[in-house]
User: What shape does this take?
Amino acid sequence: MSVAIGSFLVFAASQVGTPGPANMALLATGARYGLRAALPFVAGVALGKQLVIWPVGFGLMQLADRAPWVFETLKWLSAAYICWLAWRVANARLSIGTGGAQAPGFLAGLIVHPLNPKAWAMITAGFTGFVNPGTPTLQATAVIAICLLSCQIVLHPVWTFGGERIARAVAGRPEEKYLMWTLAFLTVASVFYVLFGGGKV
Assistant: This one.
């Protein structure tokens, strides 16, 4: 097999399923709006990774060698965007199923992974660590893309639903604001861990 599918699926699940900026954003969005209202955001987050996979697969990483400042800029744009999401979470109050503010939509989710430097690093590791030399580019990229999307379809809603269940336990109670600030803090902390400590996607 030109791509080690089984091994890569284990690797992908370990990356997609563990805490990190994207999953914290999903958890917080589920807590604020509930899984059903957050589904467009969840779909955007999942499909947004495809916007990284295909350019990387077809050689965009060559640009990183020639113009590393592009990816350094991308890293800080990522941090700024996810911290902005955290600020929205910190100042929100839970109202699952009661309307109110509109949940972030598909486009908001779509840019989470393209602005996430760890997503670029994880995808690059997939190509370099699990694809045999000489594998046709289209084949390798399609396999990586399908494997990651499969993991995301399963695991992203789990994180979002987890946020909803947590919220239902504290909505309208004094603990609510502390939950929202805690989620925001964890989101920011995960950004710094990714930037400086090699955290998960």
